[in-house]
Amino acid sequence: MIAYLDTHAALRLAHGRVRMGREAAQLIQRAELLVSPMVLLELEYLYEIGRLTLAGKDILRKLEHELGLRLCNLPFADVARVALDEKWTRDAFDRIIVAQARLNGLAPLISSDEEIAEHYPRAVW
Questions:
Q1: Count: domains in the chain
Q2: Out of 31, 40, 89, 114, which could bridge 27 as a Cys pair, Cβ 3.0 to 4.6 Å?
Q3: What is the CATH number of the domain that holds 93?
């Protein structure tokens, strides 16, 4: 089984702040964890604007080492086509992150974002 992390979930895990629901915690323990490349890009963006002290690639490396997390390698053109139907948000990051999980068999997406939870049926927190 696979599960995706959104940007916020990845940050929480990288910082050791893992207060989440039982289902999300079980997925983190049991599933093969993936992130969309868009998560990496958003982490780097947050670093560049001064909201994070570690670069995106360093956070990704930490999670790869600690959790076995992998960057998803689905073809971007396929993800973008699915993202065209994610019309519930204007946030390009959320749109691609959700589309990535949807494209990969409607995989669970660990996210505390209420808007994502409202529009993606496999969002868990």
A1: 1
A2: 31
A3: 3.40.50.1010
